[in-house]
Write a structure and sequence with these properties.
Elements (H helix, E strand, L loop, with lengths): L2 H30 L6 E7 L6 H9 L3 E7 L11
Parallel strand pairs: 1-2
């Protein structure tokens, strides 16, 4: 596949990933909004498909602090014995 085709597929995949992630975050916010007090969300990911400010505004409605963790660095290398 040429570079333009690969780039188009990547853009579509990232757009889908953005929508799936935002839907998940909205579901968390809607559920947690009824729970009093502050809450923490640890999000294991390779990368977030949006900027942190937009997510912080969304989660602040339910008093949720988000801590994204890059899961790529937490995996031990696989060695066969």
């Amino acid at each position: 596949m040429n570079d333009a085709g690969s780039q188009k597929i990547a853009v579509l995949a990232n757009g889908n990933r953005f929508q799936v992630t935002m839907n998940a975050l909205l579901a968390i916010v809607n559920h947690a909004a009824a729970i009093p007090g502050s809450k923490n969300l640890v999000w294991l990911t390779a990368s977030l498909p949006f900027n942190g400010r937009s997510v912080a505004r969304l989660l602040s409605r339910a008093n949720i602090a988000i801590y994204p963790v890059d899961a790529r660095g937490s995996l031990a290398p696989f060695t066969r014995q």
